[in-house]
Design brief:
alpha/beta; 6-stranded mixed sheet; globular; binds iron/sulfur cluster
């Protein structure tokens, strides 16, 4: 129990002022401030750096990180745990651990994941949320829960609940193993008969469409989606009425295509007249993700860039989406942090690959314009350090930045 007896907190502890200095020292960047002052575009010598208008920490991540620091302040003597990574950024997670907050790795069973947690402890739930069973398990333990689930994720859950209540299977465009998608999928099971199916990309959506049109057998579909469907999923029964939802951080254009393809498949199977009874869709990509994708598209459309550097954890879905937008248009380097640029080499993960590779000569000679963006889990200090390291390739420093 906390001092007041309250064990569930969703709105922080009003300790903003106390944690502000440490947050600023940890995540703020003078270089980023300077770039913003200069209109998001600046040069030092023959290197021009252009920053997307929307990038980096989103409102949900900002809030979750702040609550983690407030929790430490509020409960200085308690053991504090965190359900998985607070966000997909190794540096931020490292700093959280340095506060003495222990990150509990994912586990199939809540009993094992939270085995170390006792009633006197505090558990922080991340911005992605946690599956229903985990929340129930923690509530039963009686420990203090600090729930930082983002409002945009809660909005997706609301839609999934409606689908399940009305007899629609939630088809979730997302990675079935991602924390947020697991939590979202679990919401479908809170209504009797509720079902879900997670589709990762267009290729998987096409398999579902082919089943609906009668071109793929139920057994083949079940085999393909064995990890991604609700227990007891029956394709013949459960793909007759579909409601679309997204992991909030997927690529918007792909989500819309998946929606359209599934709508067309249901229409082919059941006829247009039945479509309103069989198909629902809400756009559940969050506005922060959308803004970042729109901003990078705008920057690409404006032209004048020689290459893109996209900063964010390699397992960050929204960062991957940003890199996927850039890669068909320009040489694109997705890097997990500033330390990936060392000497004249860059270590990056090409779009679609699971391996990091090293490249030298990645910064063309002479006048060059580098586009920059960062995923929602990348703090400004990392963006600033990347700018420093890029300029250092040409012996320049951020003090030399002037309007481009
Ligand atoms: S990416 Fe969107 S849904 Fe996820 S934490 Fe940020 S604002 Fe919330």
């Amino acid at each position: 129990m906390s001092g007041s007896g309250q064990t569930y907190f969703q709105k922080g502890f009003n300790l903003k002022e106390q944690v502000r200095p440490v947050l600023a020292a940890s995540y703020h960047s003078k270089v980023v401030d300077r770039l913003k002052e200069l209109g998001y575009s600046a040069r030092a010598g023959d290197v021009r750096v252009k920053l997307a208008r929307e990038f980096g920490f989103c409102y949900g991540v900002d809030r979750a990180v702040e609550y983690a620091y407030e929790t430490r302040e509020k409960f200085p003597d308690r053991r504090i745990f965190l359900s998985g990574e607070i966000i997909h950024n190794p540096e931020v997670n490292g700093r959280i651990e340095a506060l003495g907050i222990r990150i509990l790795p994912d586990h199939r069973s809540p009993e094992e994941r939270y085995a170390a947690v006792e009633a006197a402890d505090v558990v922080i739930l991340p911005a992605f949320g946690v599956p229903v069973r985990e929340l129930q398990h923690l509530r039963a333990k009686g420990c203090v829960l600090v729930d930082t689930t983002c409002g945009s994720v809660l909005n997706v859950w609301k839609n999934v609940h409606r689908y399940a209540r009305d007899g629609f299977t939630s088809v979730i465009h997302g990675k079935h193993y991602h924390e947020e998608t697991k939590a979202t999928a679990s919401q479908a099971l809170t209504h009797p008969g509720g079902q879900y199916l997670c589709v990762r990309d267009l290729a998987e959506a096409d398999v579902v469409c082919a089943f609906i049109r009668g071109d793929v057998a139920a057994a083949d579909l079940l085999h393909r989606f064995r990890e991604a469907a609700s227990p007891g999923f029956d394709p013949g029964r459960d793909l007759q009425r579909i409601g679309l939802a997204n992991q909030t951080t997927m690529l918007m254009t792909e989500s819309l295509q998946i929606q359209e393809r599934l709508r067309a498949a249901l229409q082919d199977r059941w006829g247009e007249a039945e479509l309103t009874e069989r198909f629902r869709a809400f756009d559940t990509i969050c506005s922060a993700t959308q803004d970042r994708q729109d901003a990078v598209l705008k920057m690409l459309d404006e032209g004048g860039l020689d290459l893109m550097v996209v900063i964010g954890g390699y397992n960050s879905s929204n960062t991957q989406a940003l890199a996927r937008i850039c890669a068909p248009r320009l040489p694109t380097f997705h890097i997990s942090g500033a330390d990936r640029i060392q000497g004249t080499a860059i270590r990056h993960r090409p779009v679609g690959s699971h391996e990091e590779v090293a490249a030298s000569g990645w910064l063309p000679e002479g006048e060059v314009t580098v586009g920059l963006t960062a995923g929602a889990s990348t703090p400004n200090n990392v963006v600033g350090e990347v700018v420093e390291n890029i300029l250092a390739q040409r012996g320049r420093t951020t003090d030399e930045l002037t309007a481009a």
